[in-house]
Design a protein that fits this description.
Blueprint lengths: L20 E2 L12 E2 L1 E9 L15 H14 L5 E3 L5 E3 L1 H9 L4 E8 L3 H14 L7 H13 L16 E4 L2 E4 L12 H5 L6 H8 L14 H15 L6 E2 L18 E4 L6 H11 L2 E7 L6 H6 L1 E10 L5 E8 L8 E2 L2 H18 L12 E2 L1 H9 L11 E4 L18 E4 L1 H26 L10 H9 L4 H4 L12
Parallel strand pairs: 4-6, 9-10, 10-11, 12-14
Antiparallel strand pairs: 1-2, 3-6, 4-5, 7-8, 11-13, 12-13, 15-17, 16-17
């Protein structure tokens, strides 16, 4: 039987038509009870700390992500993501993919608190289902498109197909429809994929906007996995031949048969890490698992074993760069958390080696005082350094004579100014001032005001009770993992 949610502020039952209450009949039976999601606060979060849901049933193709990217560029981040307390994404998977593709480092998030695991998963499906229930007023939509177009708005930003207007909108730009104008452009990428020959240039353009896989699809480069596996084997005296990888593409960790000597050393989907840890804990399976660094101290991780805060930068095969730590039950039972400097160094060295093997490394140049680049002047400007060059004190160059023997790729990108002796001396003085200014600003950041929190009397009493043996203190099922709120 459906229940009414309570207002978390008053404790009173909400009316059936209260805002924020979702009904089962509203989403075709997707919900069995009313759920009230309370957005308690909005905050900016690191994009790598937001964990997409691995079982999200809503798919976002390259064309849609391109449109969302166009919307971000035009309007900014108007609608925030919805996440739970630990960063699991509840709503906004498509816009998150678009933000990643745009290179955004932080995203606005509304934090919804108080959801159980079942409620969280149900809400994700309900949010997608509710979006499908609305219908267009076709006449009004057409009038609005024409009105906005007449005001100079790019129709591509609207995310609409305009098959009767002579154009087809893909991403954030408009192209000629099939059979009209030069070139035979097909209506959309899906049509191309059904066997009709498309335009190679268009396909190449769309592929640039294909969404990166989520953190749940972070397939580990072999060189990085080997670094983790080698450290694990050496640290715990294990034989790597007994390491198993149930999360490798196509694997099923619940169906796998685990032998008594097997050790799971693998990178699991972060969004279901808690249930994976409980699965292995309850079955006595030994494990050394990758984990998100920023939410390492989850209750499930602390209860299942030891949190190893490696905080290593790993670039995975899909291009995602994620701060990564580890959770294991290979440590002594009395060790709840530790650092592993040697592991961090080995993993980051392996990740750097992987990048060098997959990406072209751009050359780094250092020029004499007589050469001034636009990048150098730009850096000075950001540091507040005043500098000017007279027209009589330079000639423009695209490279130095010494660079000619290094092939066609050598030279100075964008050109540079070859300075007179007088201007070169002034440049050297400006550079010295810039270095000093940068050092001063860095020191000022370290001395910035910091909020210093103090322990309450209750927390001090908890601290006083910690540190003894389980026999002396009586232990307790949750002792050492989480204090009462």
């Amino acid at each position: 039987m459906a229940r009414k949610a309570k207002n978390t502020d008053t404790g009173e039952a909400l009316k059936e038509d209260a805002p924020g209450v979702l009904k089962a009949e509203d989403v075709g039976g997707a919900l069995e009870e009313y759920i009230r999601v309370t957005g308690q606060r909005m905050e900016m979060r690191s994009i790598d700390s937001v964990i997409p849901y691995v079982r999200n049933a809503r798919r976002h193709d390259g064309g849609q992500i391109a449109k969302l990217r166009g919307s971000l560029r035009e309007f900014g981040f108007v609608k925030p993501l919805v996440v739970d307390e630990t960063g699991n994404l509840l709503a906004g998977h498509g816009i998150l993919e678009a933000a990643r593709a745009e290179g955004m480092k932080e995203v606005p998030c509304v934090v919804a608190a108080g959801l159980s695991e079942v409620e969280r998963q149900t809400y994700i499906l309900a949010d997608n289902a509710l979006a499908e229930l609305s219908a267009w007023d076709a006449k009004m939509r057409g009038l609005e498109v024409k009105r906005l177009s007449s005001l100079g708005v790019n129709p591509g930003l609207l995310g609409l197909k305009t098959d009767k207007l002579g154009t087809v909108d893909v991403g954030a730009y408009t192209r000629t429809a099939p059979g009209q104008g030069k070139g035979d452009w097909f209506e959309n990428r899906e049509r191309d994929e059904k066997g009709q020959e498309g335009n190679d240039d268009y396909n190449a353009f769309v592929e640039k906007f294909e969404a990166k896989k989520t953190t749940d699809d972070c397939y580990t480069p072999d060189i990085v996995y080997d670094a983790v596996a080698d450290w694990t084997a050496a640290e715990y005296g294990l034989d790597r031949t007994h390491f198993v990888r149930p999360f490798y593409p196509g694997g099923d960790y619940q169906a796998m048969e685990y032998g008594p000597e097997d050790v799971v050393v693998d990178n699991p989907p972060f969004s279901i890490l808690a249930e994976i840890l409980r699965f292995y804990r309850d079955r006595g399976v030994r494990f050394f698992l990758f984990a998100p660094a920023l939410t390492l101290f989850s209750r499930a991780a602390l209860e299942a074993g030891c949190c190893i805060s490696a905080y290593a930068d790993i670039t995975y095969e899909n291009g995602a760069n994620v701060k990564t730590s580890f959770v294991t039950n290979l440590e002594p039972e009395n060790v709840a958390a530790r650092t592993a400097p040697a592991l961090t160094a080995a993993v980051e060295a392996a990740s750097d080696a992987y990048l060098r093997g997959t990406r072209r490394t751009l050359p780094k140049y250092e020029f004499p005082d007589h050469v001034l680049t636009a990048a150098t002047m730009g850096r000075w400007s950001t540091l507040g350094i005043d500098f000017a060059v007279a027209k009589s004190d330079f000639v423009r160059i695209t490279g130095l004579d010494a660079m000619k023997d290094f092939g066609k790729d050598s030279g100075i990108f964008g050109g540079a100014l070859l300075l007179s002796e007088k201007a070169a001396v002034e440049k050297a003085a400006a550079e010295k001032a810039a270095v000093e200014k940068a050092a001063a600003e860095k020191a000022a950041v370290k001395k910035a005001d910091v909020t210093c929190w103090q322990l309450s009397q209750r927390e001090l009493e908890i601290v006083q009770a910690l540190g003894g043996s389980d026999e002396e203190e009586g232990g307790g099922e949750n002792a050492g993992t989480e204090a009462a709120d």
